[in-house]
Design goal:
2 copies of one chain form a homodimer.
Chain A: H1 4-14, E1 20-31, E2 36-45, E3 48-51, E4 60-65, E5 70-73, E6 75-80, H2 89-96, E7 101-106, H3 109-123, E8 133-138, H4 157-164, E9 169-175, H5 177-181, H6 185-196, E10 200-203, H7 210-218, E11 223-224, H8 230-238, E12 242-246, H9 254-263, E13 271-274, H10 280-286, H11 289-298, H12 303-310, H13 312-317, E14 335-338, E15 348-351, E16 354-358, E17 361-362, E18 399-408, E19 415-425, E20 428-429, E21 437-443, E22 452-458, E23 466-469, E24 478-482, H14 485-497, E25 501-506, E26 509-515, H15 527-543, H16 551-558, E27 566-569, E28 572-575, E29 580-581
Parallel strand pairs in A: 1-4, 1-5, 6-7, 7-8, 8-9, 9-10, 11-12, 12-13, 18-22
Antiparallel strand pairs in A: 1-2, 2-3, 5-14, 14-15, 15-16, 16-17, 18-19, 19-20, 21-22, 21-24, 23-24, 23-25, 25-26, 27-28, 28-29
Chain lengths: ~600, ~600
């Protein structure tokens, strides 16, 4: 928010009483407010834009001749989670800022499940040094599956009210439709608290249509980033919800929705862009929100419209258009200098008036600061983990028994129920490695209950050893898969030793591990290092026979207790549709 | 704002667990959010819209078959003052609600100058009984001309901060450009207080262009309702300001700006409608915001766009689109049933789910409630007013002298300086009735100083008697014009007797008066009565020889100390451009 001093300085500078800091001379301004592109100069003082008036002359400390390049507002990612990139906000900034993304609206539900309000505070604690703006969509589901999982923290209506008062808090994060359709009063309280602060409520309306969608919207939910089909987009706009067109790593909705929006002459003002989850290597390859802008043009959208969607629309949606989202007087000087709108690769990136990136590289890499010690120490095993921790008792002494197996559907976050027959030995159910039915375990890691949920899974095709990961949606206990219990114990214990991360074990010994010390979710290293480390971990997993491209990501989703049909938590196997614990072994 | 109970009831009704109150069957919905018109049914529970989904069946207490008529959101007047209509909000509602205006964003600067925070409180004090929504643009200039006029109250930054916290307060009202261009810190403080509350700042950018406009916008001002020319509209959109297209009684900007917006393909999302000042008789004749919608279509705009401008655009601008501005689930059920979009005459008007008007008439007239006694007692003369109060002393004993005269420009709020020679008798300057140079006086009426400013004016063409009025912009002392001092005294004293209003005197005797007891500005009677009364007053003024159509309105603006070149306040004659008091008589 602007102080009296800041407003006064901006005015006096515009009046010529004080020199500007910066003149961006000879730009073609992409004015997303008036929907025009025209030549002018831009004057900046401190963090603010002073003037965009063509043909005037103000004094400036520094003048940069842009030789007719385009000047666009900094891009906005209207919804994303960054913990899953394994990067700190600082490391992330080093790869997205050169692509022109200067505002991220982040739902930090992962760190909130680990460390609650304190975790969120730690994430927004170093904002002065960040070359981008980190805004908070306050997580609405901490925990996601109350009563069925142990989390590090809980955010109830009281905590949400408190956090919603922070200046960084802009909305209530992706509220699950089932909370509305089953009339859960705790979540309705969170909505009311948010609206009372004149902030907005983000949706998460996967597949919902018709009257269900009307009911969902009627509760005060204003947007959806889970829109996949054109009919869904139109349905959401009709009930008064904005559509965030998502282009992430696995969910790629842009082509279909941009084409549909153009074909159906949709009101583009109610559309924003987001990535939701986009992995560092893909950002490095194709870009971030600038990819959305580029691709939308390839699909036939005018550049100024693609840029409106990528900038001012999100600023308006979050009621922050007085602060950013357009290159207009008084707004923060988030400005991209771009040689070609088709390519959308900024030659210069200014964040709040400061040059932060040039020609795809940071002017100065953002260093990961020293995070508080406690956030690097969030992995605690209440009881020692041994091979015996992963035993699954049978009602039988020997022979065979029928069990419920989680069946992974490749590249989709859907975990089906598979009925399978497994051998029983000495009263315990064994794996069927030949048919790829391996053990899956979720180990409580907040030092609270010591619970270990054990089940069976098909789809990873490991031939030996075990993997473990302290990112396990959304509770983020340790999830492990293995061909033998001793390797699983080694992999899990390694994560306790390194304060979270991922590990690979073979023959009962750890053969590789990668620390993610920030809440057990994120690295405190830079993006380049993290990308190399995860590649190496993937290679090590492959050496166990796993053919998957991203086995750890698959592992982080495979036990989800909220996605049909089967889940697994530290409490045990979950019947997702009936929202209850069920036994692994099927009664005869 | 929605309560938990309200959200819960809306959801449960949508789920079919509770019956709806109302079903509007068989409408053609003008969906201003998706920019479409299509057939459906609308379900309402309490004040809220439950569902607009076509083809579903919910139980409802009452069903109204709309036989394919259009359903539109209630209209919004984005900027207006209603004190100048002489009507209370209740009386005003009886003429605008049947025209479909259900939200007024009112800058109540007149009552604020009279009675400050308490006056504003009294105006928004009876909202439960009002069949429309009264929102407050918190007046930024109380007083308008500090140091040059006596007002009943002052609203400094402290008071603005306080009032901005009220739920009815949505913005800081029309901030004068000179306050920014002369860097007045008090007003910058008011801006900062407003932005800190996530509310917005309304502009008043008369004629400003180029760098001045950039400086003005850079202070955080987001809109302008004083836009007259197409180039001005484009300039405002370029600097990130919304344009409120104004169609009032005297200022009629709609035709030019709508045509210009269409011709220049302006982004219509950044445009709203307002009336600023529209008189009851004109509202009765041609309508209110529905006139703007109708006329815009005649000029070639699509109905759905004209309605977007008249509804959801203003709701978004004021960051209240979660509450009203579209017929979408969860929003307040402000719904117009309209047989023809071209004519925009609602057959039924629902405000917050309640039928309030039908076929151009209120279902039940809103009664003016009993306002607090103190607000009906705001006119106090500190000293007795007699003919002698209006004497203008000369340096000469007799003969002639040269004076500064306020020269009225017919139908424009511009008061020019005229140099004229007047007779001097017994040391006092006399009128020149033959040449229409009459006396003008402003009498302090808050019982504070007893000041009487006296000058000369040309343009009213009174042949005898005097007029007085307790509405005198923006300080609202008593202004009087007269052919003889005795009649002026009689007219002024009458206003003290009737607690404000307007009066006509002849030969030293009052021949007519009309009380405006609410702050000396507004009547506590209904619109019909007020319209008849003012017509009668205008007739009486005509009987004195005044040929003007609206002499009292002219009188209320003739002494304005903020409009070039000459003004008059209770302190004396004002040199507007140099912002100082000057003598009536010119030195030789």
């Amino acid at each position: 928010m602007r102080t009296v001093e800041e407003i006064t300085t901006t005015i006096r500078t515009g009046l010529g009483e004080i020199p500007c800091d910066l003149k961006l001379k000879n730009v073609r301004l992409v004015n997303v407010f008036s929907r025009e592109i025209y030549p002018t100069d831009i004057y900046v003082k401190g963090k603010r834009i002073v003037s965009i008036e063509p043909g005037i002359e103000l004094q400036a400390e520094e003048t940069i001749d842009c030789h007719g390049q385009f000047a666009c507002p900094g891009l906005i990612d209207a919804h994303m989670h960054f913990e899953t990139t394994m990067l700190s906000p600082e490391a992330l900034s080093n790869i997205i800022v050169p692509n022109g993304t200067l505002t991220i609206c982040a739902d930090l539900m992962e760190i909130a499940n680990v460390a609650g309000e304190a975790g969120l505070k730690a994430m927004v604690g170093n904002m002065e040094n960040l070359p981008m703006r980190l805004l908070l969509e306050v997580p609405s589901r901490v925990p996601t599956a109350p009563g069925l999982e142990t989390t590090g923290a809980i955010l109830g209506p009281k905590e949400v009210r408190e956090i919603m008062g922070w200046p960084e808090a802009i909305s209530l994060g992706e509220l699950d439709p089932s909370k509305i359709l089953f009339v859960k009063s705790e979540y309705i309280q969170k909505i009311a608290e948010t609206l009372a602060k004149r902030k907005i409520v983000n949706g998460h309306a996967i597949g919902r249509m018709g009257q269900e969608l009307n009911v969902y919207a009627s509760s005060g939910i204003f947007d959806d980033h889970e829109t996949v089909r054109v009919e869904e987009m139109i349905a959401r706009l009709r009930v008064g919800m904005k559509v965030f067109i998502r282009e992430g790593s696995t969910e790629r909705n842009l082509d279909a929705l941009v084409k549909g929006a153009l074909r159906n002459h949709c009101n583009l003002d109610n559309i924003c862009f987001c990535t939701d989850d986009k992995h560092p290597n893909e950002i490095a390859e194709e870009g971030h929100i600038n990819y959305n802008v580029r691709r939308s043009q390839e699909l036939g959208m005018e550049a100024v419209d693609a840029l409106r969607i990528a900038t001012v629309n999100a600023a308006k949606h979050f009621r922050l258009e007085d602060e950013f989202g357009s290159v207009t007087p008084g707004r923060l000087a988030d400005i991209l200098i771009v040689p070609s709108l088709e390519e959308m690769k900024p030659s210069k990136v200014f964040f709040e008036g400061r040059l932060v990136a040039e020609e795809g590289k940071m002017v100065k890499k953002t260093e990961v600061p020293s995070y508080p010690e406690w956030i690097k120490d969030t992995v605690h095993l209440k009881n020692p983990i041994t091979a015996a921790s992963f035993r699954v008792a049978s009602r039988k002494k020997s022979g065979e028994t029928t069990v419920r197996v989680i069946d992974m559907i490749d590249r989709q976050i859907i975990n089906k129920l598979l009925i399978h027959t497994l051998p029983v030995k000495d009263g315990f159910i064994e794996r069927d490695v030949e048919n790829d039915v391996l053990k899956l375990a979720v180990v409580e890691r907040y030092g609270k209950t010591g619970g270990v949920g054990v089940g069976f899974v098909r789809g990873f095709r490991l031939a030996s050893g075990a993997l473990a990961f302290s990112t396990s949606h959304d509770h983020h206990n340790i999830v492990s898969i293995g061909v033998d219990d001793t390797s699983m114990a080694a992999a899990v214990n390694e994560l306790a030793r390194i304060h979270g991360g991922c590990s690979v074990a073979k023959d009962g010994k750890v053969i590789a591990s990668m620390p993610l010390v920030l809440g057990g979710l994120m690295s405190d290293k830079d993006a380049d290092v993290v990308m190399k480390e995860i590649e190496e971990m993937n290679r090590k997993a492959a050496s166990l026979g796993c053919p998957m491209q991203a086995p750890f990501m698959a592992l982080s989703f495979i036990s989800l207790p909220t996605v049909p049909e089967l889940g697994l938590t530290d409490m045990g196997l979950i019947d997702v549709l009936n929202h209850k614990l069920i036994p692994v072994e099927i009664e005869d």
